[in-house]
Each structure stands twice: as C-alpha cells, then as structure tokens.
Amino acid sequence: IMAPFEKSMEMMPFKQRKCLATRKDEVCSIRSKFPNKLPVIVERYIREKTLPLLDKTKFLVPFELTLGQFLCLLRNKIALDSTQALFLLVAEKSMSCMSSSMGEVYSQHRDTDGFLYITYASQEMFGAAHPASLLDVIYCCPDVFCIKYITE
C-alpha cells in the first residue's frame, strides 16, 4: 500500500517529479544502453476522465516504428475496444501524422531534456468547443488507423 504522498507524487506529471538535470542524466543513460531506441514519456491528459492510467509512463521505442503503430500498442495496453477513440498529442500541442516514424517525431518534438512527451486522451478532452477541428481516429484493424476530419 502506497503512502498518500507517494501516490500524489505518482499522479504528478513526469517533468514535475524529476528536475531537468536528473531527466537529462536519465536520457544519457538510456541512450548509451539502448542506442537504437528513443526515450518516450506517455502520460494521460490531466483532465481525462474516461481512459485509465497506464501502468508505466516510460517507453523505449524503435526509430522506425510509426506513430500509428505506437498508437496501436497504446490502445492494446489500455485495452480499448474498437469504438473508443484515442488521441495522441505530441509535446502537449500537436497531433502528428500517423505515418510519421517515431524517429521523425522525436527529432522534431523532443524536449530539451531529451525525452519525447506524448499525452493521450479520449475525444471528450476536446469538449464541444472545437467540433469542426476534431480529428476522429477510426480503428480499422490492429495495424492500420484512418484519420477522418469531422466537418459539420
């Protein structure tokens, strides 16, 4: 059983749990041990209510894996059914192309600490304020995701 302080620390975003120097050291250590992998932090959107927390936030990802394939892995980890939408925001601001390799996404959006930060959320996180700008990720099969713009 976790103490209340430990539990609240676990709920804090990764960047707030560790200082910049510690995070940079961690990335150096990871990159020296696993030169073919990218250090990625995946966290649930802070206002997300319907999707569960992942059991871990740190991932080592191959350069050539696409963002769509990574999304598929996350869907399986979270155990979503085919009707539930899952959105990934890279560096807290952008929805990247699902066919981009993780290497490309990392080189464009990695943080100064060396980690790539990805936030996941359900459609509800966007609320009703942005109905025309929503991207609807439709689950096609285990390896393929189609992106459809909602225009109303």
UniProtKB/TrEMBL annotation:
<keyword id="KW-0963">Cytoplasm</keyword>
<dbReference type="GO" id="GO:0006950">
    <property type="term" value="P:response to stress"/>
</dbReference>
<dbReference type="Pfam" id="PF02991">
    <property type="entry name" value="ATG8"/>
</dbReference>
<feature type="lipid moiety-binding region" description="Phosphatidylserine amidated glycine; alternate">
    <location>
        <position position="127"/>
    </location>
</feature>
<protein>
    <submittedName>
        <fullName>Microtubule-associated protein 1 light chain 3 gamma, like</fullName>
    </submittedName>
</protein>
<dbReference type="GO" id="GO:0031410">
    <property type="term" value="C:cytoplasmic vesicle"/>
</dbReference>
<dbReference type="InterPro" id="IPR029071">
    <property type="entry name" value="Ubiquitin-like_domsf"/>
</dbReference>
<dbReference type="GO" id="GO:0016236">
    <property type="term" value="P:macroautophagy"/>
</dbReference>
<keyword id="KW-0072">Autophagy</keyword>
<keyword id="KW-0472">Membrane</keyword>
<comment type="similarity">
    <text>Belongs to the ATG8 family.</text>
</comment>
<keyword id="KW-0968">Cytoplasmic vesicle</keyword>
<dbReference type="InterPro" id="IPR004241">
    <property type="entry name" value="Atg8-like"/>
</dbReference>
<dbReference type="GO" id="GO:0012505">
    <property type="term" value="C:endomembrane system"/>
</dbReference>
<keyword id="KW-0449">Lipoprotein</keyword>
<dbReference type="GO" id="GO:0005776">
    <property type="term" value="C:autophagosome"/>
</dbReference>
